[in-house]
Amino acid sequence: MGQKVKLSTIAESLGLSTATVSLALRDSPLVADSTRDRIKEQARSLGYIYNRRAASLRTSRSGIIGVVVHDIMNPFYAEILRAIESELDRNRQTFILSNHYDSVEKQRNFIETLLQLGGDGVIMSPAIGTPAADLALAEDNGLPAILVARSVTGIDVPTFRGDDAYGIALATNHLIGLGHRTIAMIGGTDQTSTGRDRYQGYVDALRKAQIEVDSELRIPGPRTKQGGFEAAVTFLSMRQKPTAAVCWNDLVAIGLMNGIARAGLIPGKDISVTGYDDLEEAAIATPALTTVWNGQAEVGRMAARALLDKLAGSHAEDYLHLIKPEMRIRQSTSPHKAI
Amino acid sequence: MGQKVKLSTIAESLGLSTATVSLALRDSPLVADSTRDRIKEQARSLGYIYNRRAASLRTSRSGIIGVVVHDIMNPFYAEILRAIESELDRNRQTFILSNHYDSVEKQRNFIETLLQLGGDGVIMSPAIGTPAADLALAEDNGLPAILVARSVTGIDVPTFRGDDAYGIALATNHLIGLGHRTIAMIGGTDQTSTGRDRYQGYVDALRKAQIEVDSELRIPGPRTKQGGFEAAVTFLSMRQKPTAAVCWNDLVAIGLMNGIARAGLIPGKDISVTGYDDLEEAAIATPALTTVWNGQAEVGRMAARALLDKLAGSHAEDYLHLIKPEMRIRQSTSPHKAI
DNA sequence: GATTTTAATTAAACAGATTCAACAACCGGA
DNA sequence: TCCGGTTGTTGAATCTGTTTAATTAAAATC
Fold it and tell me: Is the C-beta of residue B62 closer than 7 Å to nucleic acid chain C?
């Protein structure tokens, strides 16, 4: 592989200066058309590779954007990522992706790496317990941050997420409307703002319908299929015999339905189940899952857009952007069977 | 945010040269212990951020490794990625992730970006139709490549994947052993080496059992749940009435089972279904899916290891590494019911 | 006390692009 | 012929660390 081809290689081979070559390759109007064409042709034939780190050292713009979420394997985040990806791609930004698995330390490492690489910005779904200081670290060093799906208190950073309390209330009301009175809430934690909002939405909806809230009906747990699957045992052995379940998300709901089916009951008929997020998978689950659309694609798209705008110099004054969830009614819920 | 803190800021504040500071921060034995401690302390208190692009400009080692697969949302790749991530993480490498969605062009763009950023290496599951030249582009410019899950002909690049023909034969033989004679093969394409290998494995197993191969029993299609779900219609309306299906992967199998259930039949009893990959999800599907373990975690781990070793200077002579698949028998397959 | 070793520090070149003030060449007009 | 105005090109500084040969200071040896 001979010597590395750089600007000066091209410049020398054509008897020009590196300044001209640099300008020509970036389509500067300062360079004569004929010169530009010759330079570009030469660059191609020499197999020139643009050295971005040299350039960004000078310009302090790297074209790199960091994205960090709890777990990219989780379809909920994956759908957000997909939207972010397509928006960033359109704008020729490279993105560096990472999971933090809710480790604040791993997340901080990621931010530091990004700072070292001279990232232009970061989009994150913050780890549980993220201190405002970690976001300040980024912002203070010229790395603007945008949050998705979760909030952090103590610092004003643009945040895009669904209106959780409202969304869970939609699901709960739907079940109440079908005649259910003993409704469990499955999965998730109460340690995040999301968790508290969702529980609150559930509680408020029950109260409004004059149904007593029984904390035993709350079964926290992992937000995964496995979590829902395992929760089925607890769920089915409760004294109060719930006839319906509001699940933290679609994964938990699908897992729970599998668990219910494994126990010989028919989900959607014997037990009504609602999900949350409206993943692609919800529509093809058996039975098709009644769930709440949570606008992942919207969230991702808007977050990416917001970051790009910020980098372009625009200055938004609003911080919290709540997407209004919508009900998607399918076959996993049905009217309460009078006994 | 005041002025940016750089090596010279620290150097001046302590009355030292940047050379000393640079050496001290990297724990060079050339610097006196007491000096090193003072420098590190000062760096911390000034909030110094190491500028990797400046450094890598000089050292031509960026600590960046690229990973590109068909689709990170697909659990099969996600499981490989998880393993790659943990291996690279342990070795403090940053990785840049991308989907190529089987677009050779998108994949080439990714390689170019990585070259521009001075990436140290790339792990890829090549897009369908990847020309050897694209891999040569990487290798020739000092970007060693490692392939996972798929092969590319015409160039010798270390490749880690499962033994597809063998694995599908396992599944097919399992069904034959249960008495099935009319066995369909659902999903996937014949345009990849993987596709051809898998079809071959299926055909060979049938031939060995003296079962006639009927090409109408081959239903190619998307390698997704949706794909399997939609294939159910075709599958159930076939003239030959297959009693079992070998699916391209677990996703297709789960989709197919959902489709079968939707049509009122019981997957695992009326129709036997095998998956492929043994995703985490396979065990909790309803019915639990009989499938073929394909060693995603192994593949990912080994690939990352191979790249790290290569970067460390070791020289392996073997290129193709095939992982031997294993059968995982669960409830989605049962003996053929004599009519 | 003079000389040799060893240890600690540094000056300066370097990596590869960007940028801007300065300069050259050429134009038409006076 | 001289001049102001364009258009095109370039020299040199700059961005921030790394590295090596050279220098200085201190310690060891005779």
Answer: no
Domains held by chain B: number: 3
B93 lies in the same domain as B149? yes
Q: Phi and psi at residue A149, in whole multiples of 5°? A: 70, -30
Residue B316 binned pLDDT confidence (cut-offs 50, 70, 90): confident
- Answer yes or no: do A286 and B262 touch at CB < 8 A: yes
Q: What is the C-alpha to C-alpha distance for residues B5 and B42, in angstroms, rounded to an integer?
A: 11
User: Are A258 and B72 inside 8 Å of each other by CB?
Assistant: no
C21 C1' – A15 CA distance, angstroms?
22
- Asked if residue B136 and residue B107 are part of one domain, the reply reads yes
* Same domain, yes or no: A168 and A282: yes
Q: How many Cβ pairs within 8 Å bridge chains A and B? A: 103
Q: Which nucleotides of D are covered by protein (CB under 7 A)?
A: 7-12, 14-20
CA angle A218–A221–A225, rounded 5-degree value: 115
**Whether A32 CB is under 7 Å from strand C:** no
What DSSP line would sit under B301-330, residue for residue?
HHHHHHHHHHHTT------EEEEPPEEE--
Q: Let me know whether B11 and B25 are in one domain.
A: yes
**Shared domain check, B130 and B78:** yes
Instruction: Calculate what percentage of chain A has a pLDDT beyond 70.
Output: 99
B186: domain CATH number? 3.40.50.2300
The distance (Å) linking the CA of A210 with the C1' of C1 is: 103
Average pLDDT, chain B: 95
Q: Which residues of B touch A75 (CB under 8 A)?
A: 73
Identify the closest residue of chain B to A5 by CA–CA distance. Answer: B141
Q: Are residues A120 and A268 in the same domain?
A: no
DSSP string covering B57-92, please?
Answer: HHH----EEEEEES-TTSHHHHHHHHHHHHHHHHTT
Q: Does residue B334 sit within a domain? A: no
The amino acid sitting at A316 is A
Q: Do A255 and A308 fall into the same domain?
A: no
Is the distance from CB of A275 to CB of A331 less than 8 angstroms? no
Alpha carbon distance B107, B114 (integer Å): 11
For residue A143 the two structure tokens come to 């790395």
Confidence check: pLDDT of A125 > 70: yes
pTM of the model: 0.90
Q: pLDDT of B164-214, one tens digit each?
A: 999 999 999 999 999 999 999 999 998 888 899 999 999 999 999 999 999
Residues from chain A contacting residue B140 (CB–CB below 8 Å): 1
Whether the pLDDT of residue B101 is over 60: the answer is yes
Question: For testing the chain A interface, which of B286, B296, B330 should be mutated: the one with the most A CBs within 10 Å?
Answer: B286
CB contact under 8 A, B57 and A52: no
Contact A50 B116 (CB under 8 A): yes
At B338, the pLDDT band (50, 70, 90 cuts) reads low
Strand D at less than 7 A from CB of A19: yes
Q: Return the residue matching tokens 């970061």.
A: A122
Q: Do B13 and B118 reside in the same domain of the chain?
A: no
| Angle of CA points B219, B232, A256, to nearest 5° | 130
Which residues pair with residue A137 across a beta bridge? none
Residue A1 above 50 pLDDT? Answer: no
Structural domain span for residue B271: 164-294
Residue B315: predicted pLDDT: 84
